[in-house]
Amino acid sequence: MTQVPSIAEEQTAKSSSSSKSVKLRIAKYNPEHDGESKFMEFSIPYERWTTVLEAILKVKKHFDHSVAVRYSCRQATCGSCGMIINGKPRLACFTKISELDSDVVTVEPMNNFPIIRDLAVRFERLFDTHNKVKPYLIREDSEIKSNEKEFLQSPEEVEQYIQFSNCIKCGLCNSACPTMATDSSFIGPQALAQAYRYVADSRDKGKDTRLKIIDESHGIWRCHFAGSCSQVCPKGVDPAMGIQFLRGYLLGFRS
Asked: What class is the 124-143+150-250 domain?
């Protein structure tokens, strides 16, 4: 008797026959004992929904357990898996192989960050500059009395800063910034965008403090407005626009 394949088996067979393969090139480098970076190449099958991170994890599981890569949420929320994908800073979990329109996918660690190993980099500079701009609400009142209510805002007031509050600290904007590559003391687009996020918040009273922090030689005036930071932001924060708004405050065009 002829056995009729189940629907699940037919779907599996169809999926298997329709899958394509891509050459995945992974940068391998351990600064503790390697003189230079080298690439390892793997042929990885993928579907239209396969992300670059999933392809890297296939390599890690089946071919090379030593591949170092940072990831967590897999849904473009935590900002952990930033890397250079085919020459551009991107989130690996948010980048589909099919959208790259290439038979070769090359992944490298982000620029302007010290390499831990392979695709993982150190974020100390990012966090230090982020903390430098005091990324929290500064109030004149030291505490809220128990009989006081929350600070209400109108939709128009929220609109002033909500776009900039979407930052997930992935570091892609700093990686794309040409000034970060030439000035090791530059505060960077991520921190500047977050400075504006709080300056624009009607509940905050720390505008003068933050403007004083960024108004120095390695601060906002080192930005050459290349705009590359905004082009790579996966959340549409637009750091370049925030930097221009901050300059408006410093030049007296905004109050």
From this structure: mainly alpha
